[in-house]
Amino acid sequence: MCTPRPLELPLEQPPGWDEAVRLTEAADADPDPAVVDVRLEAKIATVMLDGRPTQMWTYDGVVPGPLIRARVGDTVIVRFTSSLPEPTTVHWHGVEVPAEMDGSEATQAAVPPGGSFEYRFTATKAGTFWYHPHVRSSAQVGFGLYGAIIVEDPAERAYGDDLVLVLSDVSTADAGVLAPGDQHGWFGDYFGREGGLLLVNGKRLPTVKARAGVPQRWKLVNASRARYWSLEVPNAEVLRIGGDVGLIETPQPGNGVVLTPGERAELWVKPLTPGRRSSVTAVDADRFHIGYPQPPEAVLELEVLDEPARHGAEAPSGTLREIVPPDAAAAKPRTFELMDLVDGGAGQLGINGKTYRPDEHIPVRLGDTERWEVHNSTAYDHSFHLHGYAFVPTNLAGRSWPVREWKDSINVPAKQRLELLVRFDDRPGMWMLHCHILDHVELGMMTMLQVRP
Ligand code: C2O
Ligand code: CU
Question: Is residue 94 part of a domain?
Fold first, then answer.
């Protein structure tokens, strides 16, 4: 039997296309369109994890936490309360907030159980960002504390229908019970704790529907504490159009992009053959350079409807946005070495010969442009993250970075060197920089800048 084709095929996404992965959105209590005023409560709650009720640490009872949406220029107010059994903070990863709103242990006293804190900042740049605790972050993030914050630029052209996808993994000890945050002790810290359950927006293997020819804009956040994510999207044309902080200068190949913990990417995904269901897989990024990659694992189903769109969309090309990097000629050099350290017999990790110490910091002059060389002298990859300032990577492992873009989190492969340009244009204060394999923070791979006039 052959069903007659409708004369006019719709261009839109299929009904309910993103239902299975749609994030709870934070409710904005302020009618002023330029103010986003939300409440956020950290608390232990029972959530359905792979079909089982599981106690997790949550923001507002959901994992991931509620999606916060703002537009460039908006004032964002987050009235945070904690009902957790231990102190916590909220760090706005990638958002250029004033230092005292950064949520690190260097900028505020941690919020005690039953306590509260009001975060307030202006969303200055468009991009895909996220929030998470900065106290015992490996354990707290691993228990479920992470959420996305998306800043949109109304002047930007539409590339496709937005789909925010938070990638995470969870370790379960028994069915319905999370593994302890310090599972496997030192080995867990050193190698990084990867959970066996891979989640997309808190779900195991959910389905997204699509229509051939109708592009979707996937905004990916790697919220895992240690796992590197690399997605292969079959039966689709895939371009990377955005990075950590909004659009990149020109579209890049999008399949197989590696996201280190903390990193984001925006993918333009145009499904191709109608009537096909296929699996988006997570491919092992081999961050230990063992050479025996784990087999790919299906993490998301992509169901392309029978009916194609009437007009397929053209792939984005040319300049998506102009990116002017900080002036290299005016830059002062600085080097960082991510390294193994031995401290009293136990292996530690550090930066420039030291493990993290809350009473030490590196002075940086407000207004300066710097050229950083970040050398990873260890045998494994590390995820380099700077608070407060986005940078432009210029060279990695002896090759020019393929595109101009703003970043705040980036993989530095084993034994390799990263070069970047950063300008400390504003917002003096204490800013952390650390490996975003959060277990490595526990072993000391973190340091602090003090930016001052
Ligand atoms: Cu996403 Cu210092 O953190
Ligand atoms: Cu690391």
Answer: yes
